Amino acid sequence: MTATSATSAMVAVRRVMCDAVAEPATATWSNCLVLGNEIVLSGMTAYPAARDAALDTYAQTLVVLGKIRDLVEAAGGTLGSIYKLVIYVKDIGDKDEVGRARRAFFQTPYPCSTLVEVSGLVFPELTVEIDACARLDVDLQQAVV
User: Fold this and answer.
1) What percentage of residues in the chain have a pLDDT greater than 90?
2) Cα separations (Å) of 109 from 38, 56, 78, 80, 140?
3) Domains within the chain, CATH numbers bracketed
4) Are the C-beta atoms of residues 51 and 38 closer than 8 Å to each other?
């Protein structure tokens, strides 16, 4: 492959920002990137909401899913564009609360998902972190099941 053909195969990359999900000026990451039709999100937490008020895992999960939705919509997608979630919880015993929040937020067919327990998150009051993948050319709500 020549340098010219490698360059012509490059996918357009766009950084997405939205007021609803502030990205700190000092951040060394992007909350959301669009690579062609692919939307990739960094791990989202309920910060600062969970710092301002005690939120259980169900409530934190709803806050996080709301941030994910807001970023996907700012990128041009919809809730149905989200096809994969990776969920990190501090206590695997909270899996039912995470599932309850997912059922409240999504409809069938649900996004694919991985759920793992971790020893800690960036702030001690956080109980869940979720990263997501979505595609602009996908709508799970139109899926044939």
Assistant:
1) 81
2) 19, 26, 14, 9, 6
3) 11-142 (3.30.1330.40)
4) no
